[in-house]
Amino acid sequence: MESNYFQNIVNAEYNRKYDKYITYGTAGFRTKSNVLEHVLYRMGLLAVLRSKATRAAIGLMITASHNLEPDNGIKLIDPAGEMLEASWETIATNLANVQDSDLIHVLTDISIKENIDLSTPAKVITGRDSRKSSPILLNAALAGIRALNGNITDLGLVTTPQLHYIVVCINTNGAYGDPTLQGYYSKLATVFKSIKGAEKNNKKYTSVLNLDAANGVGAIAVKEFQRYLMDALDINLFNDGSGSLNHMCGADYVKVQQTMPLNIPSETNVRCVSIDGDADRVVYFYVDENNKFHLLDGDRIATLVAAYFKELLTMSGLSLQLGLVQTAYANGGSTDYISNVLQVPVACVPTGVKHLHKKALEFDIGIYFEANGHGTVIFKDTAKEVIKNHAKNEKLSEAQKTASTKLKDVIDLINETVGDALSDMLLVETILHAKGWDIIEWERSYNDLPNKQLKVSVRDRNIITTTNAERHCLTPVGLQEEIDKAVSKYSRGRSFVRPSGTEDIVRVYAECENPSDVNKLAVEVASLIYRLADGVGPEPS
Ligand code: 16G
Ligand code: MG
What we know:
By secondary structure, the protein is of the alpha/beta class. The protein folds into four domains: about 1-155, Alpha-D-Glucose-1,6-Bisphosphate, subunit A, domain 3 (Alpha-D-Glucose-1,6-Bisphosphate, Chain A, domain 3, 3-Layer(aba) Sandwich); about 185-295, Alpha-D-Glucose-1,6-Bisphosphate, Chain A, domain 3 (3-Layer(aba) Sandwich), CATH 3.40.120.10; about 300-445, Alpha-D-Glucose-1,6-Bisphosphate, Chain A, domain 3 (3-Layer(aba) Sandwich), CATH 3.40.120; about 450-530, Alpha-D-phosphohexomutase, C-terminal domain (TATA-Binding Protein), CATH 3.30.310. It is built from 18 helices and 19 strands. A hairpin with a 5-residue loop joins strand 13 and strand 14 (about 375-380). Helix 7 (about 180-195) packs across helix 8 (about 220-230), helix 10 crosses helix 14 and helix 10 packs across helix 15. The chain starts with a helix and ends in a 9-residue tail after the last helix. 2-acetamido-2-deoxy-6-O-phosphono-alpha-D-glucopyranose (16G) binds next to loops. Magnesium ion binds next to loops.
């Protein structure tokens, strides 16, 4: 059957027109949009095979997240809402790079090696962000899916987390939720309103916030949410799609530059939120009376959420295992606070959602967040069952009952399938409201160490290899020793380097106690890379 099955896939329109090697990286393929058409076509083909292999619906999202407008990309979403399984990333890379004449052969090979029953029906759910190049790339993907007779549900303009959500809803036959966008908005907004109750404000908490939607697809989702939330949250929307995507705005810009995004008014102590171009990351920030910028990033959200869950578990009398997962980018201040004050177990894994998600699955309630604002909370099915039954227990005290009901309800506020900027924002708002905190109170829980990130261009970034969750550099030989020497000069100093998975550069992270030293440390380490790893362009200074 194999040779016949693939006979319709030859399509000159989607021949390979670009011969640079392209890799399925941290979050799929991501590069200049004008070289991606054949890749999208091939990923349409692959999505059909993946669907047949897993006998479930697969998601295909066209986005380059926080990258600027000229870029685009694609990620495939596995049946349980997770990132594509690692072994298939290699398959995807291979398929994207083969010559057109080898395509049928490679597809046949995949179907044999993966033992795919080609008569199994296939279903692919597609979505795209708001980039101008996305419709063309979507057509290429749809052509690929159709060439192998896959069934298509195209959701049109959606955030990445909305697509993850709908894939899971479909694959659980609606048990996770109604598999529509209306279902998504309604599930989250309903539970948000019900937990928050009729009181809009509470002590220092007010329901007003300024939201920077990065001029991305998240702006559409925010407008929809506003209809469902009604006046439960007063969102002032900025960068709503009328300006250029991710340009001096959005979660990545705010996190890396540690500055206000374009267009957000500098209103003293007003809670501000930035999401990224596909709305799977969120950070908070504000400016104080001295016009000083304050960032509350993924680490802050993680600690706020961990403290809230710990409190609810203690108050409800449940002994479920709570854990938090971070990456090397987590600020040392947050890690100390989580371990020493909250006393919640904390794990460190390599960058990339798939690593955090996997580790978080080990806990009954696993909270994971990257400092860049990507994260969520996941619950073991058994934990959900325990919480549900506990909330029904008639013997509980009033306080225990309230806490366990809150715990049960808050599960529905969380998009467990992947980090979701808007669901995370609703969770943060719920917690701040419950505590009666403004953003200043929230920031008070611990002090971040001053930190700095730099990029270094080198001839081949893969020269840099790391271990120990990217905290230790293995090659080039000698680099780690030099970094150690540099770090030892600064109180509470820490620095690490790693090749980016999304850009052709090496990233440097540095933190230390004294704000005036952090630049020095970052530049010192960046110069070491430049010298020991064959830097190109100007030396960092
Ligand atoms: C992608 C990852 C994110 C990671 C970032 C690192 C997903 C869905 N997203 O955006 O988790 O933090 O890449 O980028 O996995 P870098 O390798 O360029 O530093
Ligand atoms: Mg994103």
